[in-house]
Amino acid sequence: MKPNNIYPPQRTPGMNCPRCRNFISTSIDELLSADYLRCPTCNLQLNIDRNNSRKALNTLRKVGEAQKLVEKNSKFNG
Hints:
By secondary structure, the chain is an alpha+beta fold. The protein has one domain. It contains 2 helices and 4 strands; from the N terminus they run ββαββα. It has helices at about 30-35, 55-75; strands at about 15, 25, 35-40, 45. It has a two-stranded antiparallel ribbon with strand order 1-2. The two termini are about 20 Å apart.
């Protein structure tokens, strides 16, 4: 029987490059602060359109704030 407190490993946040399909890792903080992401394999620059992405970025900001709050208030007994 599998214990209830074991969770599958979390995926690294990011996306596949539209040109070479290799993985571009990123973070919430990077998406909120950077003007672009760059593929480390083929060097493709993906610009972040802040005007057209305003709603998504605001939602992402809230997720980041909630994540930091959970991390701050979590206590693990080891």
